[in-house]
Amino acid sequence: MHTFRILFSAEWHHFRAAKGLVLLCGLLLATGLYGIYYGTTEIERQRQHLATLPELTRRNIAELKEKFPGPADAGDIGYYHSTFAVHHPDSWAALSLGLRDVNPTYVKLRLLGLQNQLYAADNTNPMKTLSGNFDLAFVLVYLFPLLIIALSFNLLSGEREEGVLPLLLAQPVRPAVVVGAKLAFRLVLVLTLALLLSVVGMLWAGVPPDGRVASWLVLTTLYCLFWLGVVLVVAGLQRPSAVNAVSLLGVWLLLVVLVPSLLNLGVAAARPVPQGIALTIQQREEIHAGWDRPKAQTMSRFFALYPQWRDTTTIRERFAWRWYYAFQHLGDLAVARQAAAYAQGLQQRYDLVEKLNLLSPAISAQSSLNALAGTDLPTHLQFQRSAERHHDALRAFYYPFLFRRVAFTHADYAQEPTHTFISAPELTTVQHGLLKLLLSVALVHLLGLGLLCVRPVTPR
């Protein structure tokens, strides 16, 4: 143990003397702080945007009260009045933005057909979407492996090339102790930076001190251990430093860039999913066809679904709001199977990636951090389902006014259903991610130790 402490201390002095490595750690620390700043700023921007939506609804109601000063037809109100299904972020989302930069955080709803509204989204800069957002999870998953490579590519080869390793092994010290001290120092250094950034990010984002704190820290630790295991494997091959650097960068490129890209392409080919715009086009065609169908045919189909309104007055006029909203809803039902298949296809893609992401610990770590923050695909699909339920509640609220021909008064606005949805963590995904990372760590470390046993450390 005394020898181990001496070697560990020597590594510390060697690191302090390497100004380039100190500068690199400082730059990564600054980059991580910027990632925290960007994530918290982006979530705060989203919160401020979402906070304006109730005011927009209040203004809309005020305009309608002015437009319809007395009792009004509920059909007019349902057509002109808009409400919002809102997806509020969890505080953890500031650390791992996930899909919140590509999926809408709210849906503007009226009493019209749902699908056309559900997949309508604000225009975004495609270059920004392509490059993605910069957050703490990005720094941990994509940049920290590069730091580990920079610190460790010459773990043993550097000592050998400088002529230090023969002198070191001439002393009464085992090679395993030398390797262990070097890896332990790098582990302490990297984990100190990673955990420091994590704690700063948690305090900055104001996350609650619950079990997710431990999960985030364990995920971060296992991911760093995996890359140190990769370093151990490459060091066990005992090649020159230049070869080690190229090999480690190749592994980073393979696991962080190529495998995720190929996996996404393979999953997209294996689980083809139609675009959401196809649903809206088909729904619009069905709704437009409703204008040409006999009213009796439309209402007969509608009453088969809602027999409680069958006893309402027969429609004799040229236009009636209850007929209009009836074929709007029938347009939704016409694409209900395709909409369910679309959501199911997205979920199947996600599930398939979760099964295959053992091939890339980077994907496993990123998806686990997103799941921990409630910014993954399943959470977005849950939000969409909650928006559908809110639309159903709106229809249930307006139908008595429409079919019983009850006037809509100003007091009735306060009775309208409201919606809210707050991201929740997908803890099952996090648990699976922890197990996969643990397995990956065990595999690379066993392989590295096996190489060192088969090919013992030699001075040359």
Written description of the protein model:
The radius of gyration is 30 Å and the shape is elongated. The longest helix is centred in the N-terminal third of the chain and has 33 residues, at 19-51. The chain has one domain (2-282, 323-454). Mean pLDDT is 88; it is low at 122-131. It has 460 residues and is mainly alpha-helical. It has helices at residues 2-17, 19-51, 53-67, 74-80, 114-118, 126-131, 136-152, 157-161, 164-169, 175-205, 211-236, 241-270, 276-290, 295-305, 321-334, 336-356, 361-373, 377-403, 427-454; strands at residues 83-88, 106-109, 421-422. InterPro entries: DUF3526. The chain crosses the membrane at residues 21-40, 136-156, 183-207, 213-235, 242-263, 433-454. This is DUF3526 domain-containing protein. Keywords: Membrane, Transmembrane, Transmembrane helix.
Name its key features.
transmembrane helix, 460 residues, elongated, 3% strand, mainly alpha
Uncertain ranges: 122-131
Order of helices and strands, N to C? Answer: HHHHEEHHHHHHHHHHHHHHEH
Whole-number count of domains: 1
What is the helical fraction, as a range of percent?
Answer: over 70%
Number of helices: 19
- Count the beta strands: 3
Lateral arrangement of strands in the main beta sheet = 2-1-3
In a nutshell, what does this entry contain?
The chain is an all-alpha fold and 460 residues long.
Give a topology summary.
Blueprint (H helix, E strand, L loop, with lengths): L1 H16 L1 H33 L1 H15 L6 H7 L2 E6 L17 E4 L4 H5 L7 H6 L4 H17 L4 H5 L2 H6 L5 H31 L5 H26 L4 H30 L5 H15 L4 H11 L15 H14 L1 H21 L4 H13 L3 H27 L17 E2 L4 H28 L6
Helix pairs in contact: 1-10, 2-7, 2-10, 7-10, 7-11, 7-12, 7-17, 10-11, 11-12, 11-17, 11-19, 12-16, 13-15, 14-15, 17-19
